[in-house]
Amino acid sequence: MPPSLRREQQILERFMWLSIAVSVATIVLKMIATWVTGSVGFLSDAIETVINFVAAVVGLWALKLSAKPADENHNFGHSKAEYFSAQVEGSLILVAAVAIIYTSIDRLLHPQPLEQLGIGLVFSVVAALLNAAAGYALVRAGKHYRSITLEADGKHLLTDVLTTVGVIVGMALVAITGWEILDPIVALLVGANILFTGFKLLRSAILSLLAEVLPDDELGKLNDFLDDFAAENGVMFTSVRTAAFGRERLISLVMQVPGEWTVSYAHAYADEVEAGIADTLGAAETIIHVEPFGYTTRTGPLFSESLTKPR
What is the pLDDT of residues 201-210, one digit of tens each? Predict the structure, then answer.
């Protein structure tokens, strides 16, 4: 692995360790809040944080696996392992949502008094601040380094912050009004929100496994580079296809060149295109098919309309 990629990998793994540490701290804080208050709302918040911890551990494993170089069984590397991490996290979120909704319905049917809400609120506020700081850092790093694992984990932490804020508001209303039924109602709303978050995360991971095209901003940079190169060097690019695999980028295209160019001359231009695309996108695997102007494809063998088919 090149030194620059090794440094990037170390940075990504440190962010995942940050997520793990924050998850452990917030689990402790939220379980204390649950214990002193007996609130199912605080319990639902704590359950989601346990999911955060498990997801962060899986994410760290996926990052390490995705960094492994290509081998005989995986010619294009292991970068898709990050999507596995996102699928695991989405699935765990769905499980947590079901558990929270079940617990909330049980508490609606069997109400229990709440105690020491003030202390519980203090612990939850501290936990929310920790999650907000870590979540923002992970999302920002995930976008910068094109890591779906970091971005998914960061968004999960930020969702947890919204969950905690909802629980805090609900508990504050219980303390003010004395309506203890608000506790399971808030927990139900939290469960529904988590359910929606898990669905979105799973959907995103599954679509990514289907090799979606590059994001719009990267496609724009790629097209600008190809247009400029074509105008400056008298070539034409067609059949441009792209795919994103975690942090990896795969580009396939046809470069049409004047028919009188030698193979060596056209190959030199193809090398320039590969290097230029890699610089433009920050790294990419580019496959270029070179053909003369006017070369077309028909059903069966490839042939040029300007040339006779070989016999």
Answer: 777 767 666 6
Distance CA 74, CA 285 (A): 15
Q: Render pLDDT for 33-43 as a digit per residue (tens, 0 to 9).
A: 888 777 766 77
Q: What is the pTM of this model?
A: 0.58
> What is the C-alpha separation between 299 and 68, in angstroms, rounded?
40
CATH superfamily of 216-292: Cation efflux protein, cytoplasmic domain (3.30.70.1350)
Cα atoms in the Cβ-side hemisphere of radius 13 Å centred on 35 = 7
Cα angle for residues 45, 50, 56 (degrees, 5° grid) = 125
Supply the DSSP string of 158-190, one letter for each residue. HHHHHHHHHHHHHHHHHHHH--TTHHHHHHHHH
For the domain spanning 3-210, the CATH number is 1.20.1510.10
Helices 40-66 and 3-37: crossing angle in degrees, nearest 10, is 170
Which 8-state DSSP code applies to residue 290?
Answer: E
